[in-house]
Write a structure and sequence with these properties.
mainly alpha; Rna Polymerase Sigma Factor, Chain: A; 2 domains; 10 helices; about 0% strand
Length: about 190
């Protein structure tokens, strides 16, 4: 039997397909934050990621009638997010740009003096931004979205061996960059 979130999603999808636009808003509201996080992990530019996500939601609205009710809506949606982001990168034919490292380090050195519990998410996101896109994506899907390896395969099209390697490397690189960003303050974050 499907879990309660899946059942709610299926109910909302049926309502959207029957013309209820408020149901679509509810559906998107439930997944917008995680979807944006996934987009940022690939695109590396929050503004561009937000634009791409708008395109994703338009695609989802127009293609929702093709949803087969075999997988979870989250898996279907995240697959569209991932594909749209990678297509955007290919279309722009640009490499993923990061801020000037010196500028980033100066900002982080200033900010880490004021580390508070509310800043945890910010520092985690800053660390994820330093990872390779595939590593950041797999970590977010595994930990943030709580996807299993099979679901990550369905979303990304990656082989399970690649997912496991990216998880392993991603964890190591995440720890390395987080230590680099926070230094001695890492213990305060944990």
């Amino acid at each position: 039997m499907k879990n309660s979130q899946t059942q709610r999603d299926y109910s909302l999808i049926r309502k959207v397909n029957d013309g209820d636009t408020s149901a679509f808003r509810q559906l998107i509201f439930a997944y917008k934050d995680v979807s944006l996080s996934l987009a940022i992990s690939i695109i590396k530019d929050p503004i561009v990621a937000e634009d791409v996500l708008q395109d994703v939601f338009i695609k989802v609205y127009h293609k929702l009638h093709t949803f087969k009710f075999k997988a979870s809506f989250a898996t279907w949606l995240y697959r569209i997010v991932v594909n749209t982001c990678y297509n955007e990168l290919k279309k722009k034919k640009h490499t993923i740009s990061l801020q000037n490292t010196t500028e980033t380090d100066a900002i982080l050195n200033y900010e880490k003096d004021y580390l508070k519990d509310a800043d945890h998410k910010k520092y985690i996101n800053l660390t994820l931004e330093k990872l390779k896109p595939d590593e950041a994506l797999v970590l977010r899907l595994f930990y943030l979205c709580e996807c299993k390896i099979k679901e990550i395969q369905d979303i990304t099209g990656f082989k399970s061996s690649k997912i496991k390697v990216d998880l392993h490397r991603g964890r190591e690189n995440f720890q390395f960059y987080l230590k680099q960003i926070l230094g001695d303050d890492l213990n305060n974050l944990l």
